[in-house]
Design goal:
Blueprint (H helix, E strand, L loop, with lengths): L2 E7 L2 E7 L5 H19 L7 H6 L6 E2 L2 H16 L9 H7 L27 E3 L4 E3 L9 H20 L3 E5 L2 E5 L7 E4 L15 E4 L3 E6 L4 E4 L2 E4 L2 E2 L4 E2 L4 E8 L2 H14 L3 H8 L3 E5 L4 E4 L10
Helix pairs in contact: 1-5, 3-5, 3-6, 5-6, 6-7
Length: about 300
């Protein structure tokens, strides 16, 4: 019997579901612990986080926790895969645009933002053998998207292995399943924003029995500055929210981290995205601002309800 719970953490909605209802309380605590460790390591909204400390390390090589080392390794791998479209050095760019706190705390901002390119992910030096990183002076890392997706991957696998249950972990638009799936598969609704599950709009529903799924959207995580609507998917080459025809991009992959890197980069790549996703062989569904849908790489039709 599937049991589920929903709550908020890391500024997004969390859903946890397991196939063994007796496992839910322990699975929930395991996920809460994982997300707490991730927040302390990776949040740029906490003065006591490791990411904030690195900005003030003055370019010195710094020992970091295994949690941050893993999250940073995934972020740098995403940067390589996407040719720099997903760049973890955009933290100060986001602050300059006004995204310097949880969105719930943002009010309309006055004054034009400072626009400047990201410093570039190639300038970050990570030594995984020593859990040591060198970040150039003044560079603030932003690991928010890739770190959440990686957390979903790790937590789903850890819960499945420890408790012997099938599990689904959804952190906003990043979903990962592990262990034995329900007979009908995990029913996952593809949506345009990361709101609470009870309030999601109608959309196609996918039956997922393995791997990960990620949706990147320009219609969520928005704020206003000097009368201009901004969103959180930034083109690191210009330091401004990406202009794109896509309202949402959803990608299926072997992991939530890979799906997230691809869906985020697809938003930034605009019209070039479908061909790029097809070349990678990643099934994807792209929706324009007026609702037109493009699918690539055999986006699954089995188990999908329009």
């Amino acid at each position: 019997m599937v049991a589920a719970d929903d709550w908020r953490a890391l500024g997004t909605w969390v859903r946890l579901a397991v196939t063994d209802d007796a496992a839910l309380p322990r699975a929930r605590q395991m996920l809460i612990d994982d997300l707490g460790a991730l927040d302390l390591a990776c949040s740029r909204f906490r003065d006591d986080s490791e990411v904030v400390a690195l900005e003030h390390a003055r370019g010195r090589a710094t020992r970091i926790s295994p949690v941050l080392a893993d999250a940073l390794a995934v972020a740098l791998a995403a940067a390589r895969l996407t040719g720099g479209d997903v760049d973890p050095t955009v933290g100060r760019v986001m602050v300059d645009l006004g995204y310097d706190r949880d969105l719930e705390a943002l009010v309309e901002l006055a004054g034009p933002p400072r626009v400047r390119p990201a410093p570039g992910w190639q300038r970050v030096r990570l030594d995984l053998e020593r859990n040591e990183v060198t970040v150039p002076p003044g560079v603030l890392l932003d690991l928010g998207a890739t770190a959440k997706a990686r957390a979903a991957d790790l937590a789903a696998r850890r819960i499945a292995d420890a408790l012997g249950t099938g599990v689904l972990v959804a952190l906003g638009g990043d979903v990962r399943v592990a262990g034995p799936a329900p007979a009908e598969g995990w029913r996952v609704r593809v949506q345009d924003h990361a709101g609470p599950p009870a309030q999601e709009p109608d959309g196609p529903t996918l039956s997922l029995d393995h791997g990960g799924l990620a949706t990147s959207s320009t219609s969520s995580r928005r704020w206003v500055r000097s009368g201009t609507q901004l969103h959180h998917i930034v083109d690191p080459r210009v330091g401004f929210p990406a202009w794109t025809p896509w309202r949402t991009v959803t990608v299926a992959a072997a992991s939530a981290a890979l799906a997230n890197a691809a869906s985020t980069a697809a938003v930034i790549r605009a019209e070039r995205a479908p061909a790029w996703l097809a070349e990678l062989g990643l099934p994807a569904r792209l929706v324009t601002r007026d609702g037109a849908v493009t699918t690539v790489a055999g986006w699954p039709v089995q188990g999908v309800a329009a």
